[in-house]
Design a protein that fits this description.
By secondary structure, the protein is an alpha+beta fold. A two-stranded antiparallel sheet has the order 1-2. Strands 3-4 form a two-stranded parallel sheet. β1 and β2 form a beta hairpin. The mean pLDDT is about 90.
Length: about 160
């Protein structure tokens, strides 16, 4: 546990992208995949819990480093980068870590300066260039959401043919 607490979970190598690529490949071929469940309080995967993912016409992959990994990008039909102001991002993180993860404001502050912001600047922000669509202000951008809906409908109709 002492080693897991020190790990930089804001670096793309902290994620099992190979497993994600494997799961997406299964879903795209019409097969189910079993995603591990992560326990944020223990800093590890649950030993016995998984989530069964079923193939569908649309699979949404959400995550900070989704556009960073080329293998993962190549499996995506539409790549979207939701661009949110840094002050909103930090406030969301503070609330989440306080309420859901039982962390102190000081530990959130330390982690933000040591890993979160540097990793965002080094990996997440540059991955924006791989997006097909960049939506500023996230869910508050009605035009961006409508454009995404149109792209999704177009993709669905072409996949049905």
């Amino acid at each position: 546990m002492s080693e897991r607490v020190k790990a930089n979970y804001d670096h793309p190598f902290a994620f099992d992208n190979e497993l994600l690529v494997e799961h997406l490949t299964l879903l795209k071929s019409g097969q189910a995949a079993y995603a591990p469940v992560y326990d944020f309080t223990a800093y590890t995967r649950s030993a016995d819990k998984t989530i069964k993912l079923l193939p569908n016409k649309i699979v949404i992959v959400e995550g900070l480093f989704v556009l960073y990994d080329e293998k993962l990008r190549n499996l995506l039909d539409i790549k979207v980068f939701v661009d949110t102001d840094s002050d909103v991002r930090i406030l969301r993180r503070v609330l989440r870590d306080l309420e859901e993860r039982g962390r102190s404001i000081y530990s959130i502050y330390q982690q933000y300066l040591a890993t979160v912001k540097p990793m965002h600047d080094a990996f997440i922000e540059p991955s924006k260039k791989y997006a097909d669509l960049i939506i500023p202000e996230g869910g508050h951008n009605e035009v961006g959401i409508q454009m995404l809906a149109i792209l999704t409908e177009k993709h669905l109709s072409s996949a049905a043919r």
